[in-house]
TrEMBL record:
It comes from the Bacteria. Residues 12-96 form a coiled coil. This is Coiled-coil protein. Keywords: Coiled coil.
Length: 101
């Protein structure tokens, strides 16, 4: 059996790892939101020009982008709530560890 089998990380490190993962996910979602917004602006400019088939295509693309933005906003809110909860739990865990030292 390896010597490191029973080694454990302190609780704060576990929270830190999860917090960093959630922050990366949140950053990725925000980046996607920015790209989606830019793409939506591009399609809205294109929808004002061209023939009716082009405008119809742009309209459909705009609807899909609006739906995507809604999904991303929900994901962002969920990740922000998760991050806040992790920060609270990490703070409580570090206070408990300080108390027992």
């Amino acid at each position: 059996m390896p010597k490191t089998f029973f080694s454990h990380r302190p609780t704060e490190e576990g929270y830190e790892v999860v917090r960093k993962r959630v922050e990366k996910e949140l950053e990725a979602v925000r980046k996607q939101m920015k790209c989606t917004k830019e793409e939506r602006m591009l399609y809205s400019q294109e929808s004002n020009s061209g023939d009716s088939a082009d405008r119809a295509g742009c309209f459909m693309a705009l609807e899909q982008l609006r739906a995507r933005e809604g999904e991303l906003e929900k994901s962002e809110a969920k990740l922000e709530a998760e991050l806040i909860e992790l920060l609270k739990e990490g703070k409580e865990a570090s206070q408990k560890n300080d108390f027992f030292i």
